[in-house]
Amino acid sequence: MASDLMINQEEQTLIQKISSLYDSLSGLPSLHPSPQVNSLFTELVLACIPPSEIDVSKLDMEVQEMRSKLIELCSNGEGLLESHYSDILVSYDNPLAHLSLFPYYTNYLKLSQLEFELLSQHVHSMPTRVAFIGSGPLPLSLLVLATYHMTTTRFHGYDRDSSATARARKLLKSDPDMASRVEFRTADVMSLTHVLSSYDVVFLAALVGIDKEEKERVIEHLNRYMSVGSVLVVRSAHGARGFLYPVVGPDELKGFEMASIYHPQDEVINSVIVAKKLPPVHVHLQGEVAHVQGGLPMRTCKCCEREAIMVSGCKMEELSREELRS
């Protein structure tokens, strides 16, 4: 009882801290990079980084509403920060040689390494075609993967904001190899249909689909058009980091087999989920065969204090960093 009370008090203190920062951020006239904006976002991230078992989906409605608005603020602030640094980078003759100017570049190096390590455990060969949905004005993840991990792969980055796509294209000047393998296209994910079946791997950025319903619609759309056996890499969040980014769970991944999930404990904020597109389920109804896009049963259990997700009889365990490297 005392332990439960202490956890509850810790959660309440955290929520009060985050709510106060939300009030400060939402009261600003602009979220363009500035000492005040940068300081508030840094304080917010530092408040959410420590490991926490808080379940943001179980918070009361008032806190849920604040969280939704905060994620939208974070999305806007992140976009403005990336646009600011993208404009700085294109002022150099070779923008890709100066990516480290972005203040969180090291985090992207770590996140991309993590994603590649996870992905490597579930693909038999180097992907030839990769899509990145929500590439943004400064597509660091895509660029790092293309530069260091998938050096022969063709990448297509999609963003619904034409100004973001235009900025991203300018970063490729003075680098013929990258320009020949990387292409940025302006498109909303929901407008992409049969082209999705041509990719071996699809990366879904954390802020594509900010609320649960929108995220479900996006993933359902990807499931409808991705080819069977192709891989979806989804960025999620865990614990208090769910105040910064949407949380993706089994309910949102119908039609995919969750192969692995990793929750970083360091300054890398996003959790990473690797899932494979399943074949349609054939259901016999009164002598007829109905085709169901996904919807395989999933259940969650606790075993040895490790979460395991059962997908159609296949066990997927959360990975430790040591297991990841093996």
Automatic annotation (TrEMBL):
It comes from the Eukaryota. CDD domains: AdoMet_MTases. It is an enzyme of class 2 (transferase). Its EC number is 2.5.1.43. InterPro entries: Nicotian_synth, SAM-dependent_MTases_sf. It holds the Pfam family NAS. Keywords: S-adenosyl-L-methionine, Transferase. It catalyses: 3 S-adenosyl-L-methionine = nicotianamine + 3 S-methyl-5'-thioadenosine + 3 H(+). One of its GO terms (molecular function) is nicotianamine synthase activity. One of its GO terms (biological process) is nicotianamine biosynthetic process. Synthesizes nicotianamine, a polyamine which serves as a sensor for the physiological iron status within the plant, and/or might be involved in the transport of iron. Belongs to the nicotianamine synthase (NAS)-like family. This is Nicotianamine synthase. It comes from Rhynchospora breviuscula.
